[in-house]
C-alpha cells in the first residue's frame, strides 16, 4: 500500500489541521485522540511517512525506531498512567479496523481496560 500524503495525520504533521499536542521531538509527534476511548488516549506517530506498523518495522531507520519506542514509554509516564497501567494498540490493515493510514500507536489508560479483544 502506498502512502497517502493527504491522510489526516499527514495533515496534522503539516499543521493544516490542529491537534492537542502531548509530545514532540525530531522523529515523533503525539497528540490526544479526538474521540477518546479512555481517560488517557494519546496517539503517537512518527514524522516519517509510514502506512502502518508493518511499513515502519520494515523501512524506518534504527534512529526512528529507537526514538519512537522511547517516546511511547516517556509519553505514557508523563501522562501519569505508568503506575496504574496502560495498553498500547497499533492497528494494521482491514481486520484490525485501521482507519488512518499513517502508522500510530494508541496509548490507552486511566481506567480498567478489560480483556484485549472482544470475542466474536
Ligand atoms: P485507527 O483506527 O486508525 O487505529 O485509529 C485512528 C484514530 O484516530 C481513532 O481513534 C480516531 O478517533 C483518531 N482520529 C481520527 N481523526 C482524528 C483527528 O482529526 N484528530 C485526532 N486528534 N484524532 C483523530
From TrEMBL:
InterPro entries found in the cross-reference section: Histidine_triad_CS (IPR019808), Histidine_triad_HIT (IPR001310), HIT-like (IPR011146), HIT-like_sf (IPR036265)
Lineage top rank: taxon: Bacteria
Enzyme active site: 104 (tele-amp-histidine intermediate)
Annotated motif Histidine triad motif, positions: 102-106
Domain HIT: 8-118
SUPFAM superfamilies: HIT-like (SSF54197)
One function term, GO molecular function aspect: catalytic activity
Name of the protein in its database record: Histidine triad nucleotide-binding protein
Organism: Nitrospirillum viridazoti CBAmc
Lineage: Bacteria, Pseudomonadati, Pseudomonadota, Alphaproteobacteria, Rhodospirillales
Amino acid at each position: 500500500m502506498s502512502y497517502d500524503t493527504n491522510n489526516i495525520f499527514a495533515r496534522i504533521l503539516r499543521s493544516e489541521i490542529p491537534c492537542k499536542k502531548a509530545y514532540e521531538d525530531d522523529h515523533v509527534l503525539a497528540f490526544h485522540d479526538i474521540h477518546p476511548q479512555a481517560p488517557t488516549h494519546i496517539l503517537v506517530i512518527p514524522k516519517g511517512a509510514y502506512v502502518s506498523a508493518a511499513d515502519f518495522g520494515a523501512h524506518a531507520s534504527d534512529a526512528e525506531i529507537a526514538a519512537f519506542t522511547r517516546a511511547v514509554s516517556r509519553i505514557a509516564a508523563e501522562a501519569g498512567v505508568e503506575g496504574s497501567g496502560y495498553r498500547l494498540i497499533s492497528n494494521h490493515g482491514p481486520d484490525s479496523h485501521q482507519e488512518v493510514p499513517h502508522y500510530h500507536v494508541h496509548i490507552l489508560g486511566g481506567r480498567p481496560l478489560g480483556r484485549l479483544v472482544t470475542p466474536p
